[in-house]
Amino acid sequence: MSGKMRNSGAGIRTPISRTKTWRPTIRRPRIKSALFYQKIAKFASPLIKTYKNSYNKSTMKKTTNKRTSAMVMLYLNLQCAEIPPANAPALIEKSYQKVFETIAKRKKTKILLGITGRSIELLKEQNPKVFNLLKNLIKAQKIEIVGGTYTNPVLPLLPDESRTRQIEKHKSLVKKHLGTKPVGFCPPEFAWDPTLSTDLAKAGFNWSVIPHHLIYFSQTLNELAAIKPKRRKYSAELWIKLLEKSWIRRLLFLPLIGWLFNQELSELSHEPFYISGTNDEIVGIPHVRTWSGFINASLKNSWLQSHDRLKRLLRRQAIRGQGYFMPYIGDVENIGYGGNSPIVITAKEFDQFLDYFEGAGFRIETPAEFLKREKPVEKIYIKAGSGDPTGSFDMWTEDPDNMVLEKICGEIRWKLENVKQSDKRKKIEKYLMLAENADGRAWNPVPERRLDCFKAAEAALELLDLEKK
User: Fold this and answer.
1) In which domain, by residue range, is 441 found?
2) Are residues 143 and 74 in the same domain?
3) pLDDT tens digit sequence for 374-407
4) How distant is the alpha carbon of residue 283 from its chain centre?
C-alpha cells in the first residue's frame, strides 16, 4: 500500500493500491433527469415523424414537378473537324449505328438530334441502312430533329443572304429526306448575334439553345471576347483553356477550377427566356456546358467523378431544378469513335447514362411541349458570341488559312450577285456553302477538312469564270 491518498468522490479519502487499478465511482443519474429526458422524447417523437412524412411528401412532389422538364440532345456531323473523310464508313458503323440501335431498344427514350444538311446527304449515300434506322426512330417519335444549317458555318460571321441560304437548305433537306419540320434551333458552334433572332423567326423556329456563358457575358459587357491577356474569372472550362500552356499554373489554379466546376454543376435555375434581339419572339433554352464534360467523365467512373455522383446530381436537379434542363448536348462522334473530346464513351456507357437520366425523376419532354404549358417571363439581351469558352470568334477569324479562305468566299459572293437563277447558280451556291463550313476552319481540323473548303471555293470560282465566258 502506498502512503498516498485520493479523494473517492464521496468525501472519503482512500489509499490507492499499486496492484489494483483504481476506477472512479459511477454515479447513477438522478431520477428527475431521467424523467425529464423521457418527457422530451415522448413530446419530440411525433414531431420527428411528422417532419419525416412531410419531407417525403414534398420530395415526391418536387420529383414530379411539371416545371422540372429535361431532355438529352445529340449533334451529328459527318464533316467533323478531327475526322478525315476517308474514316466516315468506320465512324458510321462504330458510332452512329450503335447509338441509334441503343435508342431503338429503349422504350421510353426520346432524344433531340441536331444534324447538318450535308450529313443527311452523306449518310443516305454511304450507309442507307443506318439512314433508314434514323428515319424509323423519327417516325416512332424517339428522335426529334432540331433545326440547323447545311454545313455548320459560324452564322454571325456570314452575310445575311448566306446564312439564310444555309438555314433554308437545311430545312428543305430535313423535310425531303426525313419527313419532318423542326421547330427548335441549335446554332452551329453555339454562335449567336442579335440579328439571328429575326432569321430564325422568318424560318419558322420558336426556340433556340443558348449556352450559359453567353448569358453571363451579355450581363458583363462581354469583356472576355476582347483580345486581352487578363480574363475575368468565370468558368472552369475557360480557366482550363487559358492555362493549358502551363501545367504549373494548372496545378496552382486547380482548386479554383474545381470550385467553379462544382458551382456550375450546382446551378438550379434553367428558366427559358425571351431573347431580346431584332426579334423578340424566339425563346432561349439555357444550357450549362460543364454538364456534358462532367457526364462523360463520370461514366468512366474515375477517382474524381463517379456514377454515384452523377446520379446524385441528376436527382438534385430533378427535385430542386427549375425550368427546362438540358444536361447533355454532345457530339455523336464522341460515343464509340472519338472526335473533339478527350473522353470517348461507349454506346453501353451512353445507355447507362440514359438509365440514370430517366430514373432521376425528370419530366421528359421537348422544349416545344414545355413551352405550350409554361411561358417565359424574363427577357434577356444576348450579345454576339460563340461557343468558345471566351465567347470570342478569334479561332474562326485570326487563323491565316481562314483569312485567305474568307477572302475567296467574299469574292464568290460578290460575283454570284450577277449570276441569274439557274442550275449553275445552285451548284455555285452549294460549293460556297461547303467552303463556309466551320469544321474546316477551327478546332484543329485535319488537313483534309481544310482542303475540302479550299477545293469547294476553287470549284465555285471556276464555275463563275465559265459563266463570264
Assistant:
1) 399-468
2) yes
3) 999 999 999 999 998 888 898 899 889 999 999 9
4) 17
